[in-house]
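Q: I have 388 residues here and want to know how they pack in 3D. Can you give me a structure?
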Amino acid sequence: MDKLKSNILMVMVPDRLSELLTKGEIVDRYYNPGEVFDEVHIVMFNDDKPDPALVQRTVGSARLVLHNVAAGKALFLKSLCWRPFLLRPWARQVVELARRIGPALIRCHGAHLNTYAAAAVKRTLGIPYLVSMHINPDEDMRKRAAGSMQKLIAHAQKGIEQIGLLNADLVMPVYRPIVPYLERVGVKDYQVCYNVLNPNHLGEKADYTLHNPIRIISVGRQFREKNPINLIHAVGRIPGVHLTLVGDGTYHEYLKNAVAEAGLDDRVRFHAAISNDQLCRLLPEHDLFAVHSEYWEISKSVLEPLLCGLPLVINRRIGLPVPELTGDICMLVENTVDGYQKAIEELITHDDKREALGRRAFAWALANWSPKATEARFAAIYRQYALR
C-alpha cells in the first residue's frame, strides 16, 4: 500500500461538539473512519470546549487535538455579512494553523466558513479537502428561512458556500436530494455517501411477533415541519398501541400538552434525548417506526430503523419525493390522522405484510448504508485523496 503524505487529518466542523455529546449523538470513528490517520486535529469554528476524553471515540485510537477558531457575530459584522474578500484576513489564521499541523487531508462537515477556510488552505498550501453536505441549502435553509435575520444569514452564506464547494476535491452529499443543488451551483466532483451509522449497537430485527401492547417509536426534532401530532392522534384511535417519541424542539411542550388533553399519558411516552448507543439497541425491540417530515431528506433517524429492519411509516412530503423512500421499503401515507391510522392498522393486522416490509427495508439498507460498508468507503476515499 502506498504511504500517506502524512498520518495527520484535519477536520473542520461548525458544530458545538459539547451539544452533540450531551445529546449522545456521537459515533465511534466518525471523524477518522477506518482509523486511516494516526493523528486527528478537529478545528471548531466557535468557542466550544468539549471534554477531549469524550470526543476521543470519534477518532478511534488516533492522537486527538482540539482547536478553536473564532467565527461569531463579530466576524459577521466586520466582514459585512461574510463578504468573501473581507474574510481573507480571517482565513489566514486557518492557513497558518494548517501549515503548523501539516495534514495530508482536510475534511469539512457542512459548507460554511469551514469550507471557505479550507479553500484558502488549498490555494496557499495545496492540501486537498473533502466536504460532506448534510442538507440541501436551497430547500432546507433558504426556502425555510423565517424572519429578516434568518433570511439575511441564509443569503449571506451563498458566496462562501459556493467558494468552498467549487474548490473542493470531492463533495459527499449524504443523500440524493442534495444532488440537484450541487449540480445547480456547478459542482462536478461529487459522490453520494450516506452517513456512517452506529457500528456497534445497531442490530437486525429478528422477530416480527407483535408485542403486547404494540410498540411504535418515532425519532426526530419536534417543530413545525416534523410535527408528529397526526401520528399521536392516530395512535389514540387504536387500542393496545403505545407510542414512544424521542426528540426535543420548539413543539415539545405543545405535544406533551396535546397528549395530556387527549388523555393519552398512559400510552404516549416522551424522551427529550437518548444516547445513540441506547437508541440503536432499542429500535429492534419495537414493532413499527413512524414519523412525519416535510424535509427533502433521508435523515439519520430514518436510516437507522431501516437498517434494523423495522417497518417504517412516513408521510408523502409536500413537494418532490425523497428518491430513497419508495413503497418497497416503507409505507407512504398522507400526513393526516386517517392516513397514519390506516397504515398502522394495516401493518399490525397483516403479519406477513409487516414482516415482508421490514425485511425488504433491511436488505436495501444493508446494501446501501451498512456501517461497515460506509466506513470502508469513507476510509478508501480518504486514502485516495491523501495520497495525491
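Q: Anything worth noting?
A: The longest helix spans residues 147-166. The chain has two domains: 8-196+371-386, 214-369.
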